[in-house]
Amino acid sequence: MSARILITGANRGIGLALVEQYLDANFEVHACFRNEKQAAELIALAAAKPNLQLHQLDVTDHDAIEALSETLSDKPLDILLNNAGYYGPKGYGFGNTDAQEWRKVFEINTIAPLKMAEAFYPQLKQAQRGIIASVSSKVGSMTENTSGGGYIYRSSKAALNSVVKSLSNDLLPEGIISVALHPGWVQTEMGGPNALIDTQTSATGLKHVIDTLTPEHSGGFYNYDGSVIPW
Ligand code: NDP
Fold first, then answer.
1. 108 lines ligand 1 (CB under 6 A)
2. Which residue stretches, if any, does this entry annotate as coiled coil (predicted)?
């Protein structure tokens, strides 16, 4: 039986590159996208790859998360990859933070990964070595924050890191590993054209990190090259 992975935000950027990585590794890949109009490449890939199944999911829709979990309740889930993310408005520095946008970013970057973990807990528990890998960001690290600003995105990823740590404490006794991953500064819509690495390099690194996880790694924060990122 092929190992099973579920990836959110899989229609473009790092998520799409991760889908390709796991297809090459013969996983049964469940890839989530929000909007068909933004998912042409993923839909074309699914037409050519029988082990790729697509699901429409806005990660802020908790009923839809529950419904997807029900749809996928037949088999164990080896990896839940919380990849979907949103930066929010750029250029908002101290003094003019948009609280409404802040709530939206938190819904996607912080609350959704926990809701996904809660919904897919039964399937993760059934796997030999269930993994919850949540794509965070180095800018969510307190230690790395030497330049200030970025209140919305930074705080959403710092809070995600806290969620990852609690998941690790709660679920490791049941054999489920939870980690936060930094994908590098990646050339995507979010990372922009000046970013340092392409999506393939990031996804190859992230998959290698996930492949080599042991229970001792749970509750940690890792770069795509495997190095540890301070909290
Ligand atoms: P992109 O902006 O290229 O892609 C973001 C993905 O998230 C898209 O698939 C998007 O779907 C999806 N998404 C956004 N909101 C929702 C939602 N409400 N429900 C479901 N899906 C949603 O970003 P990246 O590929 O660069 O980022 C992937 C992850 O990596 C994110 O968590 C990001 O924070 C993180 N990251 C990225 C870095 C970089 O340099 N690129 C650096 C550090 C971290 P849609 O197409 O429908 O909008």
1. yes
2. none
